[in-house]
From TrEMBL:
Residues 41-266 form the ABC transmembrane type-2 domain. Belongs to the ABC-2 integral membrane protein family. This is Transport permease protein. The keyword Membrane applies. It comes from Ktedonosporobacter rubrisoli.
């Protein structure tokens, strides 16, 4: 039986084996959400980037590619643009860990009487929440891509978006815990973001691809997120949604476990 966790205000070390400090997680999450709300340029840049890709791909290539599985290319690529917003936003939110390390906040959290999972889970939830909020704004432009929105498919898409953002945010936390300085994070982020997006089926159909590409698609977590979002928005292959979400959740747990171990090594 677990004992009651010691509160942060008491100044005594909480047992290291207590898995979660909900109050601490909420504090980390709230801090990230306040930071996100104050950075309006980050939100505007995310929306602008998504619109550029939507109009450049969806409308620029629709005449050349024709229909895909009964959908226009603009309809097909719209969920992929949402996936792009999620991966950019989720990984970008993790950069605050590098920033906090340089200015000492990370060390304060790590030596506080709270489990190591507090920082990792709080950061993951904060990144996923901000990424989902930014992605939800993109849904407003669905009529331009001839995607019909209903309360049911919007709700399903939001769930798929949040689970996808959780998985990618957990990956971002692992990367941020590994990077030691602020300058290198941007380079690593760009090196990872573009391949994950390009090889996720976001901008091209995954059927009848070469075997080597199919293998990459299978090990790419964003593939499952894009498939789930596309299924919910376009009512396409809905039976695959539970499997896609399950894979994302398993990936998230693995990444969170790795990140927690990495936080212990920093002390």
């Amino acid at each position: 039986m677990l004992k009651n966790p010691t509160s942060l205000s008491e100044g005594r070390a909480a047992p290291g084996w207590i898995p979660i400090d909900l109050e601490g997680v909420a504090m980390i999450w709230r801090r990230d959400m306040v930071r996100f709300w104050r950075q309006r340029s980050r939100l505007l840049g995310s929306v602008a980037r998504a619109l550029v890709w939507l109009f450049a791909l969806g409308f620029g290539l629709r005449g050349s590619l024709g229909s895909i599985s009964g959908f226009s290319y603009a309809q097909f690529v719209f969920p992929g643009v949402i996936g792009m917003t999620i991966i950019f936003s989720s990984l970008q939110s993790a950069i605050s860990i590098v920033y906090d390390r340089e200015f000492g906040f990370l060390k304060e959290v790590q030596v506080a009487p709270t489990p190591r999972s507090t920082l990792v889970i709080g950061k993951c939830l904060g990144g996923a929440s901000s990424a989902t909020a930014q992605s939800a704004i993109i849904l407003l432009f669905a009529p331009f891509a001839s995607v019909t929105l209903t309360p049911l498919n919007v709700l399903g898409a939001l769930v798929a978006m949040f689970v996808t953002a959780l998985a990618i945010s957990a990956l971002g936390v692992v990367i941020a815990m590994w990077i030691t300085d602020f300058e290198n994070f941007g380079t690593i982020q760009n090196f990872i973001t573009l391949p994950l997006y390009m090889f996720s089926g976001a901008i091209f159909p995954t059927k009848q691809v070469p075997a080597w590409l199919h293998t990459i698609l299978l090990i790419n977590p964003l593939t499952y997120g894009v498939n789930a979002i596309r299924a919910m928005l376009l009512n396409y292959d809905l039976s695959s949604v539970p499997f896609n979400l399950l894979v994302l959740l398993i990936f998230m747990v693995i990444m969170l476990s790795i990140a927690i171990v990495m936080t212990r090594k920093e002390i």
